[in-house]
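Quick question, first post here. What does this chain look like in 3D?
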Amino acid sequence: MYTFCERTAKAGIKNVCIHKGLFPAFAEEAQPHLAAHASVGDVGKAAKDWPQLNFVIYHSGYRHLGGPPANGMDEWQRSGRLSWLSDLAEIPEKYGVTNVYGDLGAIFAWTVIAQPVLAAAMMGTLIKGLGADHVIWGTDSVWTGSPQWQIEAMRRLEIPDDMQKQYRFAPLGPADGPVKNAILGENGLRKAELGRPDRFTAMKEAYEQGGPSRSNLRYGYMHKPARPQTAMSGQRGNDACRGQTRAAVDQHDRPSSDARRRAPEIL
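> Answer (accepted):
Ran it through. Tokens below.
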């Protein structure tokens, strides 16, 4: 891993994303030699030795996803910890570093609906240990469909009052407050050095400045009746058709000789 870090730093790359966690107990029983690689035990030292790199840990190292859903909640209720997510959150204080970030991909989606208390525990633990500015939004929506429902869930989620008091967690705050805005986009923009506002924020601001008035723009096609078909073809056919049409119109407009004879004279 250190060879990789050395080459990454030399190339001027700042952000290193590492897959950790998603290694439940049954996986460790089957392949115990992989547990050390799946855990976050090597992240703290690497972060301290390579301060010029930012270590973004996918899934925040949470190990229980993929196993029985009750395992994570059971561990939390028993010990107030979540393997290996709690270990990740303790790295800044333990190693004195500020370059470790936790990603929410998959772990938020798989807990916020079925186990919202567990999702709140995850958020409280990560924010308390890493800081709200070091939690990166992720959805893994390739597995769960459009991420809009996850965004809405994050906007609505709050850590229960009793959990805040017991574990000294700060509240997540309003739907559009600084904590949730940071997690949902601002932290990632800052790490990617994309600046702010991004293109969609600028579009939204332009829309709001324009006010609620209608533009009356319409897009699409106008339906026109199809021209009558004729057996004739080519320019001669078209000319003949137009000629016949004019003749019919003239005949219609001109009264017949019988009609002229029957018409009364006007004195």
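Residues 204 and 210 are 10 Å apart (CA to CA).
Strands lie at 15-19, 54-58, 100-103, 135-136.
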